[in-house]
Amino acid sequence: MRKPLIILLISSLFLTSCSIFTEADEENGDIKVFEVILNFNAADNFETVVKFPDNIEVGRNHVLVVSIFDGMSDGLIGDPEEIWEELPYTIDLENGDLTYGFKHTQEDITFYLDGFLNLKDLKSEFTQDIKFKYAFVPDEWASSDNLTHMIGNADGIIYLN
């Protein structure tokens, strides 16, 4: 009974909205979900570092799941809902490809822009007020066979070392 509940919690993790990052915006058992709204600019080399909250213990085998807000559903079936895409996320623009990515340590996460285009020429809609979510999945869930099979090959999901 516990494994189906875990899978349900993980799969529904990014279907809910959170407020601006201060501490754990949402908790599903031991899963902590955070939301940040970031700006990217040339002065910071199109990177933004977010320190993990002090009250979060990042274990050696925690899984970090990161996604970017990609608009609202059309609401054809039910109410409109937020759409989230896992990182890395690439957009095919007229003048080249833009990728939103991340890298991390056990203390912080760096969100960045990359691509085959001049980042300085990007419109503000691609660099300002970009909403991301990230979540930590605890060790015991990360090591379960069902969870590893479910998320093991997905982009944007990595084990913290």
Tell how many strands the DSSP assignment holds.
10
Low-confidence stretches: 1-28, 146-161
Number of domains as seen in the coordinates: 1
* Number of H- or I-type helical stretches: 3
Please estimate the helix content. 10-25%
In terms of structural class, how would the helical and strand content be classed?
mainly beta
Roughly how many Å is the radius of gyration? Answer: 16 Å
Oligomer: single chain
Strand content: 35-45%
Biggest sheet record: 6 strands, antiparallel
Overall mean pLDDT stands at 75
Q: Identify the overall geometry.
A: globular
| Euclidean distance between termini CA atoms | 30 Å
- Element pattern in H and E: HEEEEEEEEEHHE
Describe the protein's architecture and organization:
The protein is mainly beta and 161 residues long. It has one domain. Helices cover 13% and strands 40% of the residues. Strands 1, 2, 4, 5, 9 and 10 form a 6-stranded antiparallel sheet that branches. Strand 1 and strand 2 form a beta hairpin. The longest helix has 10 residues.
Short description:
The chain has 161 residues and is mainly beta.
